[in-house]
Amino acid sequence: MNPTLRHFYENHHGKVSDKWSIYLDEYQRLLHPLQDKEVCLLEVGVQNGGSLEIWGNYFSNARNIVGCDIDPKCAELSYINSSIEIVIGDICSPITTQAVLSTCNGPIDIVIDDGSHTSQDIVTTFFNLFGHLKEGGIYIAEDLHCSYWPGFQGGLHHSHSSISFFKRLIDIVNFEHWEEDMTRCMYISELVPINDTYEELLSSIHSVEFINSLCIIKKRPYSENTLGHRIISGYDEIVQQVKDKTGEISKPQK
User: Fold this and answer.
1) For this structure, is 145 an active site residue?
2) How confident is the prediction along the chain (254 residues), in pLDDT tens digits per residue?
3) Cβ–Cβ contacts within 10 Å for residue 89, how many?
4) 246 vs 34, 217, 227, 228, 234, CA distance in Å?
5) 211 vs 97, 123, 163, CA distance in Å?
């Protein structure tokens, strides 16, 4: 049995990493099915570089462990693990995003945004990177408690905070049930100025999960994100008739 992520943290003696306790157990739950895979993990926000070192140990068969940070001092960090690389630049910049994608050299399995924690940067980073996440991939935004603080462009009732944006993605998951004449992009653009080119990206959101200070978004093709047909099993309808003549009841898909 592979060691847990908490085990790696408790026994780590290299570069400093700073994570909240709840993250370790939730990451273990989310990521252990990928632990032996040739994954590409991208972490935005390098700081002292310890988390990249630990991810490199946790994912022993990783194809790439890539960190991106705006601080040029991070370029001084070096690693024995050859799968770990660092890109210096602002991930919200198209030039930096392209440099990151070139370094990843293929689809990304896991994105962890531990960057500036400001709402605008969090939302921009999501739109820059989610489209490059592979189908079945996992996108994680960390430290969303900052979204409740004015100093990070947030507040409990702040309509344009990052947490407000992620809450809207719950409605995106349930898009097929809307009765309003509105696209996904039109709905999101009430908070974030985007155009219809992002419609396909939004349709690939399979699930949105909230944990204290974390939001986890999973990506799958649109065909796996609809409710599908209603499946009725059994014959006896003692209390209420639920079957139509075909044995199925379904609503046309958008």
Assistant:
1) no
2) 899 999 999 999 999 999 999 999 999 999 999 999 999 999 999 999 999 999 999 999 999 999 999 999 999 999 999 999 999 999 999 999 999 999 999 899 999 999 999 999 999 999 999 999 999 999 999 999 999 999 999 999 999 999 999 999 999 999 999 999 999 999 999 999 999 999 999 999 999 999 999 999 999 999 999 999 888 888 888 888 876 645 454 444 55
3) 16
4) 41, 36, 18, 16, 14
5) 27, 18, 12
Give ∠ CA 208-122-41 in degrees, rounded to 5: 70
Closest by CA position to 208, among listed 172, 235, 233: 172
State the pairing for strand pair 205-211/214-219.
antiparallel
CATH number of 39-224: 3.40.50.150
Q: How far is CA 80 from CA 84, 101, 119, 216, in A?
A: 8, 22, 34, 30
The domain ranges of the chain are: 39-224
Look up residue 85 and give its amino acid.
E
195-203: Cβ within 8 A, 24+ apart: 198/127, 201/127, 201/130, 201/131, 202/172, 202/175, 203/175
CA 188 to chain centre: 17
> Three-state SS for 205?
strand
The active-site residue out of 117, 145, 206, 229 is 117
Residue of 28, 22, 26 whose CA lies nearest to 8: 28
pTM attached to this predicted model: 0.93
Alpha-carbon separation of residue 49 from 18, 43, 72 (angstroms): 10, 10, 13
